[in-house]
Write a structure and sequence with these properties.
CATH topology: Rossmann fold
Radius of gyration: 18 Å
Number of helices: 8
Strand order of the largest sheet: 3-2-1-4-5-6-7
CATH superfamily: NAD(P)-binding Rossmann-like Domain
Distance between the termini: 50 Å
Largest sheet: 7 strands, parallel
Shape: globular
Number of strands: 7
Helix content: 40-55%
Number of domains: 1
Length: 252
Amino acid sequence: MSQRVFITAGAGGIGKVIAETYVAQGAQVFVCDQDHTAIDNLTEEINGTCVDVTDEAALDAWLQDGIARFGGCDVLINNAGIAGQADPVEALDLAQWRTCLAVNLDAQMITCRAIAPVMKRQKSGVIINLSSTSGLFGAPFRAPYAAAKWAVIGFTKTIATELGPYGIRCNAICPGAVSGDRMDRVLAAEAQARGVAPQDVYQEYASGSSLRRFAEPSEIAQLCLYLSSDAAKFISGQAIAVDGNTETYHSV
């Protein structure tokens, strides 16, 4: 039986690459995304619905639709995320803070809350929550994002202990800087906050990796595929970085 894979923010960027990677392996893929155009442009192999993940009722409805349509869920990938406000702590806006946490953290709770009973009945399942290296290290001028991504790891480790006895594995993936439009926007926002050029910020990010480059979306997708395979059937409760070794920093 092919895997039934649910992916939030799966119609563009990293999420779309993840979706296409699973489709190539014969999986049944069900995605949501807030971008109407991206949903309309999905290939027929990917089932998609337009959903704002901060809308609890809409997100729940999407999940219940998928569960009914496919008869269950084997893999849940919480990919939805936003960069959040990029400013010093004294300039943070509470409304923007709450929005950042709503997308990056609250949505993961909502999806896991709905999927856990299904996977418990199946006595199997894989949950993959997207965190970030900002959930492993401090991130200057990125307090809302870093706070949310640290929380994702704590949430993931906690539900791994709760759901493990039912044969459900839960892991967090912590990408470093990933090439694409979203990262371009992050660089531009941070550059503006610091009063420097975006290229200067890019060089700092890249030099912070031992491999001196950004990750590719396909590298995140391949780790998802591995973690949801039988090859990873004893891996749970982990926060796994895909960051070219960001523990080694280099001056620009």
